[in-house]
Amino acid sequence: MQRKLLIAGNWKMNTTHDEAVALASSLVEKVGTIEELDIAVCPPFPYLFAVGEVIKNSNIALGAQDVFYEDNGAYTGEVSAAMLKDANCKFVICGHSERRHIIGESDELINRKLLKSIAEGLFPILCVGELLTERQAGETMEVVSQQVTRGLEGVSAAVMKSVTIAYEPVWAIGTGVNATPDQAEQVQAMIRQLIGQIYDSTIAKQIRILYGGSVKPSNASELLACPDIDGALVGGASLKADDFCEIINRGLEVSRE
Ligand code: PGA
Fold it and tell me: Is 235 near ligand 1, meaning CB less than 6 Å away?
């Protein structure tokens, strides 16, 4: 089965309003009409509307970097799934490692965010990945399978079509050191197998599993060519229009092969 690649840019806590609009405009101009793969950008919350306006007539989708699981009320600083829908978001990142390890989000919290996102019609991207110490201790598979299993708790087979998983080894994020294609493929194949066990082989074949962690133009081809890598979640390189577009073009080449 040919899964459509998804190349998503996670801008994290970067850009000003003007930079966000300029970056989005440049992407629309360069890759805004591509249909062979899916493209998304996840700007900071304050710029969702502005970026949404820029990309609205293109094939680039809008994503958010986080969400809260309640509908509304006294949750100072939080943003609901309905608000993200209002801003025309399609995707939402849940459980990014920076939220797990800097903010302290638990698997349980991430699971609630994921369930709420699905219930509101958003497409969550569940991020999982091991720390360097966990890899060195030989715990990668255990850590990642636990994050996947707990993250998907209570998600029925019927709604799994809206879920994307992103394998992002923490030691590869923002370090310039990517997982080798072999390292990434090993873990991603395990995740797919696990999805087959939790759900069934059809869902395992359908689900998109992205790789994230220092993806750049120079390593995108070999990573995206791996059988169980269905796209990329790109941080640093998504802030430069040329680099992000080149990664997209590498993805196009791979999907045409
Ligand atoms: P990076 O970030 O590409 O800068 O390593 C990836 C991510 O955190 O999603």
Answer: yes
Residue 1 lies in a domain: no
Supply the pTM of this predicted model.
0.98
Q: 1: pLDDT confidence band, cut at 50, 70 and 90?
A: low
**In a domain? residue 119:** yes
Domain span at residue 61 reads: 6-256
**Per-residue pLDDT tens digits for 211-224:** 999 999 999 999 99
Evaluate: CB of 10 within 6 angstroms of ligand 1.
yes
* C-beta of residue 230 within 8 angstroms of C-beta of residue 166: no
**Which pLDDT score is estimated for 2?**
78
Nearest CA to ligand 1 atom 1: 235
What's the CA gap between 177 and 175, in Å, rounded? 5
168-173: average pLDDT: 97
**Residue at token pair 């801008």:** 11
Residue of 105, 130, 168, 185 with catalytic role: 168
